């Protein structure tokens, strides 16, 4: 039997990020359904059964369940609780749902970390779900007001008067907004403006999007996307892989017209993440509990940082602001990181962040830093594809990012990983993961919370 310290020495560990008198918290397993283009296959999805099957963890060992989602169904507003009961967990296990735009499952995971660190729990299931193929659609405000008044009307005359006040315009449905409430601007518009501000060309965006699809296809064909669990859709076929991975060519991508700022914008359907259905889940435990149960952790979850910025002009720049903070907390530099996984809302958003991170002027002018943050080397960056190609179910992406970092650290023999994701509202989540001995260590959740066009 090889002891952990021997493994650290054997892997020439740079250093451990363990802290005295602080619990080690580990990622035991992470799974997800295939991410599918909205409107293609799913009818409804819950992933807890997959996590239970893969880990074989007794249901009564789980102390708490947390799920993230963005566009909620009123009938199942606490989807974590409904999913837990549906999966056969005890009704004595508390469950709650969080929403933080595109970093909702990041928040679910860090809430789990907090519960374990505080000694409240030893094993927590965290995850996220989004089902864009069947979003709730409301009546217009005037129609809702009339219907509520009808429900309170006491006489036939009052009811007839209210019915007579209904106009055709009142029947127009109200779709879920894809715009920032504070600015009334869609995330696509924000991404287009951000790309223009940093001089990111249409060609650069298309090249990055093509890279994402090509790398995702290569990873899929090589069987590297091992977190994906096949799912039997009632009345349909078994779904076993993501269906949005579609490598194209620069020539084909160049034919697409701007999707938001017309006719001169640079953000198109080809270089944006697409509306996606999917779910994800991870099992997070204290290291002591995991080892006692015979589990071999995939990674140590070492630290995380949340950052918020101006939702109008810096909506998608969270990774730039969050990354140095989480690295400083961990006592690391960019060169220490072996694996980078950034959420790809838009190719223009990624490229703008990389340019901001490589700018002394931006660091000095906006971040109060003496020098630039530094950019992740592309040979360490999103090597198995990203949200542009794999898809982006708003509430589920965070768990995919963290699990991917853990698997990449194991596959590539790295020790430290960094996850960063922007989100609506101008926020971001950064997470640091460490590949400890037998486990990868993730560095910090850098989440920029601003609802990625919910694209």
TrEMBL record:
The UniProt record lists the Thiolase N-terminal domain at: 25-288
The UniProt entry's sequence similarity note says: Belongs to the thiolase-like superfamily. Thiolase family.
The record's InterPro entries line, in alphabetical order, gives: Thiolase, Thiolase-like, Thiolase_acyl_enz_int_AS, Thiolase_C, Thiolase_CS, Thiolase_N
Q: Any idea which UniProt keywords this protein has?
A: Acetylation, Acyltransferase, Endoplasmic reticulum, Fatty acid metabolism, Lipid metabolism, Membrane, Mitochondrion, Mitochondrion inner membrane, Mitochondrion outer membrane, Transferase, Transit peptide
Gene name, per UniProt, is HADHB
Question: This chain belongs to which protein, by name?
Answer: Trifunctional enzyme subunit beta, mitochondrial
**Which Gene3D superfamilies did the record assign?**
3.40.47.10
Instruction: State a single Pfam family of this protein.
Output: Thiolase_N
Keyword Cell wall biogenesis/degradation carried by entry = no
Instruction: Output the lineage of the source organism.
Output: Eukaryota, Metazoa, Chordata, Craniata, Vertebrata
């Amino acid at each position: 039997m090889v002891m952990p310290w021997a493994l650290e020495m054997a892997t020439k560990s740079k250093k451990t990020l363990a802290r005295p008198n602080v619990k080690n918290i580990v990622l035991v397993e992470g799974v997800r359904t295939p991410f599918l283009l909205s409107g293609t296959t799913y009818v409804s999805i819950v992933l807890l059964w997959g996590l239970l099957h893969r880990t074989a963890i007794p249901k009564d060992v789980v102390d708490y369940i947390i799920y993230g989602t963005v566009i909620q169904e009123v009938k199942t507003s606490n989807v974590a609780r409904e999913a837990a009961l549906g999966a056969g967990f005890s009704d004595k296990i508390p469950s709650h749902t969080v929403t933080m735009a595109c970093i909702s499952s990041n928040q679910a995971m860090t809430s789990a970390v907090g519960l374990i660190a505080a000694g409240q729990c030893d094993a927590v299931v965290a995850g996220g779900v989004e089902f864009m193929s069947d979003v709730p659609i409301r009546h217009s405000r005037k129609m809702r007001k009339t219907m509520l008044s009808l429900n309170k009307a006491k006489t036939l005359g009052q009811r007839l008067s209210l019915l007579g006040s209904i106009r055709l315009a009142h029947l127009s449905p109200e779709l879920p907004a894809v715009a920032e409430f504070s600015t009334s601007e869609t995330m696509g518009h924000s991404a287009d403006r951000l790309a223009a501000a940093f001089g990111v060309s249409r060609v650069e965006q298309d090249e990055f999007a093509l890279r994402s699809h090509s790398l995702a296809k290569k990873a899929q064909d090589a069987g590297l996307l091992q977190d994906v669990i096949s799912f039997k859709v009632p009345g349909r076929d078994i779904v076993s892989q993501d269906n949005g991975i579609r490598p194209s060519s620069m020539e084909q991508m160049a034919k697409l017209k701007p999707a938001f700022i017309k006719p001169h914008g640079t953000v198109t359907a080809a270089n944006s993440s697409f509306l996606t259905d999917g779910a994800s889940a991870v099992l997070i435990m204290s290291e002591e509990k995991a080892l006692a149960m015979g589990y071999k952790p995939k990674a140590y979850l070492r630290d995380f940082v949340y950052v918020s910025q101006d939702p109008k002009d810096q909506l998608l720049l969270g990774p730039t602001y969050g990354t140095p903070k989480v690295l400083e907390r961990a006592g690391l530099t960019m060169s220490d990181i072996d694996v980078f996984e950034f959420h790809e809302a838009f190719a223009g958003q990624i490229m703008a962040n990389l340019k901001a991170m490589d700018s002394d002027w931006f660091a000095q002018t906006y971040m109060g830093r003496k020098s630039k943050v530094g950019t992740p080397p592309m040979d360490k960056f999103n090597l198995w594809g990203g949200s542009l190609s794999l898809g982006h179910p708003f509430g589920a992406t965070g768990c995919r990012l963290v699990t991917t970092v853990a698997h990449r650290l194991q596959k590539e023999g790295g020790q430290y990983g960094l996850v960063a994701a922007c989100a609506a509202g101008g926020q971001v989540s950064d997470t640091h993961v460490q590949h400890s001995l037998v486990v990868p260590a993730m560095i910090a959740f850098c989440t920029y919370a601003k609802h990625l066009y919910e694209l």
